[in-house]
Specification:
Layout: E1 2-4, E2 7-16, E3 27-32, E4 38-48, E5 68-69, H1 73-88, E6 94-104, H2 111-121, E7 126-132, E8 137-143, E9 146-151, E10 154-158, E11 160-164, H3 172-190, E12 199-209, E13 212-222, H4 229-236, E14 244-245, H5 247-257, E15 268-273, E16 278-283, E17 287-291, E18 296-305, H6 311-329, E19 334-335, E20 338-339
Antiparallel strand pairs: 1-2, 1-7, 2-4, 3-4, 3-15, 5-6, 6-14, 6-18, 7-8, 8-17, 9-10, 9-16, 10-13, 11-13, 12-13, 15-16, 17-18, 19-20
Helix pairs in contact: 1-6, 2-6
Length: 341
């Protein structure tokens, strides 16, 4: 099954890794790993159904202190300093540095039950579930970030760069991050859009989300004739906001410094309605995924590193992004004095 907001898809028909299938027919759930793996699942039935309220005991999460990180504080701040060395050498302007958090998986864990908790404790514009255990995909996301939206030939992206607890916390460095990534996304989309159609309707708008604020921009264009999903994904993936600029240099630095693969974190999660020519793919941030082979629940957190970055400040940003979500998954998030379990 797959759930995107109030849209529930059931009746699995077929699964493929070919992006050209998204230009065919039917309703598809889509997951793209940061490393490039693609899973497209077509469903027979789609209906409107609100996310159910959390049921007591439906989700058994790990203890809050059971989470471990692929990069601890010392390793992460050292990696931030290494990114700054790359910037000083002229290798890159910005690189997104991430860590993957892992905790033991409880028997019978169901990501859809986790989605119900996230919908209540951390509502997000792109929240949802994709549950395809036989195909190695079990994801619960509370992503706030739009990767790609399509309506016919019009394509739109909403990169997020810049995070603070309040608007007053946003720094000049945050605005610089955002503008750099907007320029990168304009270039990515421009590779498959008609000349002169790429615009930036919103630049560095402040959006409020549970527990924090983001700077969000909008990049829009019109696909050139003949450009479909294979061409669009080839041009735009992985998302610029979770790689860096220039993207090719940032990807090399990410491979050098991050010890764990990101998987669906920082990839793409969403849906494509091929019959109607519409789609909405989110950047796979604020996202949990189950690794059955390792018996682990995983979650990622990261920050954009620029020359103006303070290593300790970037570590704190990853902590801010993770803290509320990990508390929800561990059953320790409090709302009106009651735990969400």
């Amino acid at each position: 099954m797959a759930r995107f907001g109030d849209r529930l898809a059931t009746g699995l028909l077929d699964v493929t890794g070919d992006p050209a299938a998204l230009d065919s027919e039917g309703f598809w759930a889509v997951v793209a790993d940061f490393e490039g793996g693609l899973t497209c699942a077509r469903f027979a039935h789609v209906r409107e159904e609100p996310v159910p309220a959390p049921r007591p005991g439906a989700w058994r999460g790990p203890a809050r202190d059971a989470w471990t990180s692929s990069l601890d504080r010392a390793a992460y701040t050292a990696a931030v300093r290494r990114v700054r060395e790359h910037i000083a050498a002229g290798d890159v302007y910005q690189a997104n540095l991430c860590r993957v958090l892992s905790a033991p998986l409880a028997p019978g864990a169901d990501v859809d039950a986790l989605t119900a908790l996230l919908a209540r404790g951390n509502p997000a514009p792109h929240g949802g579930t994709i549950r395809l255990p036989e195909h190695g995909v079990e994801i619960a996301t509370a992503s706030p970030e739009l990767f790609l939206r399509r309506a016919g030939s019009v394509v739109e992206s909403g990169p997020i760069k810049g995070t603070g607890r309040t608007e007053a916390d946003l720094l000049e460095k945050d605005h610089a991050e955002n503008v750099m990534i907007v320029d990168l996304v304009r270039n990515d989309i421009g590779r498959v859009c008609a000349t002169g159609t790429v615009t930036v309707p919103d630049l560095c708008a402040v959006e409020k989300h549970p527990g924090l604020v983001h700077l969000v921009s909008t990049v829009r264009g019109e696909l050139r004739p003949g450009a479909g999903w294979p061409e669009l994904l080839d041009a735009a993936f992985p998302p610029g906001s979770v790689t860096g600029a220039p993207k090719t240099s940032a990807l090399r630095i990410i491979e050098e410094l991050e010890p764990a693969p990101r998987g669906p974190y920082c990839g793409a999660v969403g849906w494509v309605d091929a019959d109607r020519g519409t789609a909405e793919l989110a950047v796979g941030i604020r996202t949990f995924w189950i690794d059955r082979a390792a018996g682990a629940l995983r979650f990622g957190a990261g920050a954009g590193i620029t020359w103006g970055s303070d290593p300790e400040g970037e570590w704190r940003e990853t902590e801010l992004k993770a803290s509320r979500l990990l508390a929800i998954a561990s059953g320790e998030y409090q709302e009106s004095g009651e735990a969400l379990t």
